[in-house]
Design goal:
heterodimer; A: about 160 residues; alpha+beta; 5-stranded antiparallel beta sheet; 6 helices; about 30% strand; B: about 160 residues; 6-stranded antiparallel beta sheet; about 30% helix; about 35% strand
Chain lengths: ~160, ~160
């Protein structure tokens, strides 16, 4: 739930960015499709996205641009039994992306994968977070300054997304 | 990194893998500030690096990993390609080791750090042109832990 709230919060904040880029959707779609297939579930429609303007006044992630989000519920993800299979699924679904961070926390029952896509003036980052009952797939376009800040402590960045 | 670390990840309460390849590092280096003293140092060091891999494991209890788990990796760090330049064991069981890889002549081709605590194990692999002194500058960045290096480098225990 925390990851979902964070994702919705980020999405709401980023919707205010003018000229947000939503290109390069294929990798995001592939990850979403992989989660759908693996867990036999569809991403939720998120009515809370309509509250974007409210959240935008509260916070706006520095350096963040285009944004896509998919939230899944009722996964029945058991880290002890499904962790290795999830690793394999993500390795296959993330082909062509650069794996940056993987955080596996049995304590919090959270698995987080962060990948980067093509980079130029901005960098595309894909984050997939799996909890016991929920999963979130996020694609975000970051400014290079924001990416460098994230690289300063990538593990913590990964944990922050997992929270 | 050996596949045996995947077994450790399966036992660990938390595991973190960080992978920064050459492209990512060079890109990050371009955007590190040359004006900020710390970033300028990091920028210079990163320019010579080909990759950074960090694997960190946190265990719930002591004894959930053992020396043999690390020995398999240590076997890869043998002379003449590798030499251990730091090996510190503390009374509380913490152990830090630093290995250097010589690529050609006296040029350093990489550094491996093994930091083993009773409930934590961290392995860092830095490939490329880097010195032990650079470790101090990179500690705390790019997922690399801060390593307390003895002032007289090259001495063991």
């Amino acid at each position: 739930m925390r990851a979902r709230l964070l994702a919705v919060f980020l999405a709401a904040a980023i919707l205010a960015v003018p000229g947000a880029a939503f290109g390069a959707d294929r990798d995001f779609d592939r990850l979403v499709k992989a989660v759908e297939t693996r867990f036999g579930t569809q991403p939720l429609h998120i009515p809370l996205m309509g509250l974007a303007n409210f959240f935008v006044k509260v916070a706006r992630p520095e350096g963040a641009g285009g944004f896509r989000l998919a939230v899944f519920e009722d996964l029945k993800f058991d880290a002890d039994e499904d962790g290795a299979a999830l690793d394999r699924m993500m390795a296959s679904a993330s082909e062509g992306l650069h794996p940056l961070v993987k955080v596996r926390s049995r304590r919090d029952h959270e698995w987080t994968y962060i990948y980067t896509g093509e980079m130029g003036k901005t960098a595309r980052m894909l984050i997939a977070t799996f909890e016991r009952n929920e999963a979130t797939v996020v694609e975000v376009q970051l400014s290079m300054d924001a990416l460098v800040r994230a690289l300063g402590d990538p593990a913590e960045a990964g944990k922050a997304f997992a929270r | 990194m050996p596949a045996s670390f995947d077994k450790l990840a399966a036992k660990a309460e938390e595991s973190v893998d960080v992978t920064l390849d050459s492209n990512m590092l060079q890109l990050a280096g371009r955007f590190l500030s040359g004006q900020d003293a710390d970033q300028a140092k990091a920028k210079k060091i990163v320019a010579g690096l080909k990759g950074i891999t960090v694997r960190s494991f946190t265990f719930k209890q002591e004894g959930e990993y053992n020396a043999a788990d690390v020995d398999a990796f240590r076997e890869q760090l043998k002379a003449p390609a590798w030499s251990r330049v730091v090996g510190v064991t503390e009374k509380n069981g913490e152990r830090e080791e630093v290995y250097l890889k010589t690529s050609s002549g006296s040029q350093i081709g990489g550094i491996v750090i093994i930091s083993a605590e009773p409930k934590e194990l961290t392995i860092v692999n830095l490939s490329g042109d880097i010195s032990v002194d650079d470790l101090g500058e990179l500690g705390g960045q790019f997922g690399i832990p801060k390593v307390e290096l003895p002032k007289s480098k090259g001495k063991e225990e």
